Amino acid sequence: MAQRTTTLNAALAGTIDLGGDLTVKRFGFGAMRLTGQGIWGEPADREECKRVLRRALELGINFIDTADSYGPEVSERLIGETLYPYPDELVIATKGGLTRPGPGRWIPNGRPDHLRVACEGSLRRLRVQQIDLYQFHRPDPAVPFEESVGALVQLKSEGKIRHIGLSNVSTDELQRAEKLTPVVSVQNRYNVVDRSSDAVLEACSLEGLAFLPWRPVEGGELEGASGVLSEIAGRYDATPSQVALAWLLARSPVMLPIAGTSKVAHLEENLAAVALDIAPSDLQRLDTLTHTG
């Protein structure tokens, strides 16, 4: 049976450095769900979303991930309204490079002029002079990758970005970006049933770059693993999602899960994963589940 601590705090996950000058707890908060249905418009319960943000900080979480496309603009605005002025230890990461023509629709736009407008809009909504970590949200097949990354390099030279990250990239794209600028993080889809970014995670592990897995619990729908997860979870008095998050934390020391929610109770449930001590034999069973990639 897992040994649990009575004090729930993100510090139990340990820490990771971003760029050598920012240290964050290795369990962050993903702010995509602080929006309406289809990640579009205002959330159904705005005050509860504000409570989620405040509670995240109370629980020791000091890394929040958002994007200009969440809402669009809604998530960033809510963070600024709720948490500003920010505590010194809080690191806010955002992203640019996707446009939103409607609910559930995501269109890449990696043009340098768009990325500049997106970054400057994020600065205003987050009420900061410099974004701690700005991530290129997704490569745009209509724009040379180096041009998009180059736009972020220019914004960094102007002091508007502190560190550059990438999202939804291959190992080749990571290497191409690193020829232009230091990269401190990669955010790709990754969870116990989707290992398609294993090669990217390995590259990040070797280089000491933070790896942010999005959809870390597949929105709670861990098909193909539900039986094993449920069995293991039952023995640890945990939920399948908690076991899936604990597996991620054990998978690599550069892993920085950013589970998201719009409910305080769900936030606390997710964070309880840091207190799970899953036996190596159970972690190995999860390692060998049938997966994509």
Protein traits:
two-stranded antiparallel ribbon; single chain; disordered N terminus; 10 helices; 7-stranded parallel sheet; TIM Barrel; 293 residues
Molecular structure report:
The chain is α/β, with parallel strands linked by helices. It has one domain: TIM Barrel, CATH 3.20.20. Helices cover 37% and strands 16% of the residues. The chain has helices at residues 46-58, 74-83, 112-126, 145-157, 171-178, 198-207, 226-235, 240-251, 264-271, 280-287, and strands at residues 15-18, 22-25, 29-30, 63-65, 91-96, 98-99, 107-108, 131-136, 161-167, 185-189, 210-214. The chain is globular, with a radius of gyration of 18 Å.
**Top CATH class:** Alpha Beta
Query: What value does the average pLDDT take?
Result: 94
CATH superfamily: NADP-dependent oxidoreductase domain
How many DSSP-defined strands? 11
Show unreliable segments. 1-5
CATH fold name, please? TIM Barrel
Q: Helix fraction?
A: 25-40%
Tell me the layout of helices and strands.
Blueprint: E1 15-18, E2 22-25, E3 29-30, H1 46-58, E4 63-65, H2 74-83, E5 91-96, E6 98-99, E7 107-108, H3 112-126, E8 131-136, H4 145-157, E9 161-167, H5 171-178, E10 185-189, H6 198-207, E11 210-214, H7 226-235, H8 240-251, H9 264-271, H10 280-287
Parallel strand pairs: 3-4, 4-5, 5-8, 8-9, 9-10, 10-11
Antiparallel strand pairs: 1-2, 6-7
Helix pairs in contact: 1-2, 3-4, 7-8
State the gist of this model.
The chain has 293 residues and is of the alpha/beta class. The protein has ten helices and eleven strands.
